[in-house]
Structure formats: C-alpha cells, structure tokens
Amino acid sequence: MNTSPAHAASGLHAQVTDTQDAWNLATGRMTLADIADPALTQALQDTLNHKTKPLGSLGRLEDVALKIGQILGSTAPVLEQPQMVVFAGDHGLTARGISAFPSDVTWQMVENFLAGGAAVSVLSKQNGIALTVVDCGVNHDFLAGLPAGATRPGLQVRKASGAERGTADSSAQPAMTTSQRDQALQHGMELVKGLPGNALLLGEMGIGNTSAASMLLARLGGLDIAVCTGAGTGLDAPAVQRKTEVLREVLALHAEATAPLDALAAFGGFEIATMVGAVFQAARERRVIVVDGFIATSAIVVAHALQPHVLQRCVFAHRSGERGHEFMLQHLGVQALLDLGLRLGEGSGAALAWPLLEAACVVMRDMASFASAGVSTQTDEAHVPG
Ligand SMILES: Cc1cc2ncn([C@H]3O[C@H](COP(=O)(O)O)[C@@H](O)[C@H]3O)c2cc1C
Ligand SMILES: O=C(O)c1cccnc1
Predict the structure, then answer these.
(1) Domains of the chain by range and CATH?
(2) What residues make up the catalytic site (predicted)?
(3) Ligand 2 centroid from CA 208, angstroms
(4) Can you tell me the ipTM of this complex?
C-alpha cells in the first residue's frame, strides 16, 4: 500500500491529524507529517482557475485560499470557531532597561484583555473570534482573593513551576530552566487540545518580549543583533542602541545555546515557549495557524528550526513595523498578507487579517465557475485589441 502523504490525501480526503506522536520532549525531536499533496494542490488550483475571473486576478487571496485548502484538506474549506490565544509572560531582562514600559503593564494589559478593552479584544470581537488569555508566567496572581480552584472566564493559568514572577534575567542566567521550558511547551500543547475549531490565531503580551524575539532571530537566523533589534514599545534611537548592546551581551553569555530548544531556554520567554508548544499541537491537528507580528513570528522561527513542516500550516498576517520582522519573514521565506505599519502585537494583526482568510475560503467555495455561470472563457489568442 502506498502510504505517502500525497496518496493518503488524494481524492481530497487528507488525513486530518497525524497519528504519530508529534513531539518527544525527552529527545526534543518533533515529527510532523508533510501535508504537501500535489493532487490536492492541482485540484485547488484548477478550482481557482475555473472561477469567473481572469486567471490569478484575485492575487494573493488566491495563495491564501490554496494554502487553507491544503491545510484543511478540502477544495471547499470552511473555517470554524477561530480561537485567538494571547500568551502572556514577564521578562527578568526588563531589569536592564530594555523596554519603554514597566513590567506591571503586562498584568494590567491582561486585565484589560479580560475586560474587553484592548485592541485584540475589540478586533477579535468584531470578527467573531473567541479570545483566551493564558498566564504563562506573569508576575501577578490573577486568581488572588478567589476561592481555591476558582477560574475566571477567558483566562487560563498555566505557569511553569517557579515561573510565578516571569523569566530570570537572561543577562545573568538562562531565562528558564530546561524543565520549565518543557513544561511551557507541554502547557501549550495541552491548551490547544482543549480548544474547539480549526484555526488558531497567535497573540502575546509581555513587556520586554521584543528583546527575547530579537535574540531568537539573531541566534537561529545567524544575524547580527543590530539588525534584529528595534524600538519595541517606543524606545528612542539612543535607547535602542543601549538595548542592542545589552542583547549582544546576553547572546555572548549564552554562546553555547545554538540548538533551537537551548536558545529558547536561554532567551525566553514563557509566553514564547508556550506558543511553540501550541503551534506544534495546532500543526499536528491541521489547524490553520494565523501568525501575528514580531514575537509570534519568533515562536515560528523556533518551531521551524525544529521541524520545517510547521510552515505548511501557517498564514502570516502582517509585516510588523518592528525592525527585524522583515528579516524574520525573509529567514522563513514567507510573505505576510498585510503591511499596515502595525507594531503592537497582542494578536491585533492576526485579528485584522482574519476576514481575508474568510474571504479566501468564500472565493474557493462559493464563486461560480465559467461553466456554472455560462460566462465565456478567455479567447485563444488572449490578445486585447489595441
Ligand atoms: C500598553 C501596551 C499594550 C501592549 N500590547 C502589546 N504590547 C507589546 O509590547 C510589548 C513588547 O515591547 P517591549 O519589548 O518594548 O516591551 C509586548 O507586551 C507586546 O505585546 C504592548 C505594550 C504596551 C506598553
Ligand atoms: O510586531 C509585534 O508583534 C510587536 C512590535 C512591537 C512591540 N510589540 C509587538
């Protein structure tokens, strides 16, 4: 029997989940099926080409339609119950003055997400996207004063042990221990297992996390930290210079952390590590993964370094204004959908891109073909007079 993925998915009945264990924490090895299916790709391309429009005239929307069709294994893809997950965590490195804002903003913004007032809250609501905030290691007790075992709507508390105050200062020691990192990865996988629907939108909150993302890019992308470092929440040019020098020092301190999981533990943060676990679980379940800006993409950089097939499941929502994001996208060899100069994070860009993913599916599913609508096709010569 031919068990190649292409065969398994021929006739447009792609396997929906991989059967293998996707992740072996003991070895750090990851398996993920190659979902590239030439037969399905051809069927999707034919479907698009027969729609009542000049060939390719819906531009990159057609690429997105094709991608979603491949992920969901269907020429009539339906996106269901999209889930925005905002991964939150604090960073010990903020002690070195690498952000324009104090760490307390992390927990205060988590409360703002829960109250419905943040950008990601209103944009998710506008687009019918469910929002979950995950405390992966915020320096705050969101359940203080509540009876033991109580929960809060929209919040999941999944701190690795010892992560109650956030990561350690990575300029003095690794941001997290390997056991904390593995717990965070596990938490990410578990939480995705518990979510409905077939699409995961990645958001994050963590003062100082552009620094972690910059260092992950520098180390795993082999780039100088200067091109990977930007203003984050709004540092001026001299402050960006100082931030760059701090990050250069941290990279030198953890010079041995070259393997993806070692780099993740060395540079952090808990929200990024939990996101990596979530990405693997979502990829394994063939959910559409909508990647937000600089920090969310850094989680994909780590995941991709471990298992490149992860990219087959990702749609990159936008190109962030944060310096370094374009290098991240280049490193991954991907193009983002929107370019709005956003530099917020939270998942705001992913929520904004969501209607385009839905539009791509509607085109693929519902547009008439030349044959069904009785519209004449292109002339053989394909010459336009004049
Ligand atoms: C009020 C406020 C809301 C935010 N929402 C997202 N971020 C963004 O800024 C932070 C990263 O930037 P840096 O590395 O410079 O600290 C992250 O929390 C990110 O999600 C915010 C930042 C602020 C100040
Ligand atoms: O692109 C992002 O995700 C971003 C940029 C700046 C600050 N926070 C997040």
Answers:
(1) 7-78+363-382 (1.10.1610.10), 83-354 (3.40.50.10210)
(2) 346
(3) 10
(4) 0.99
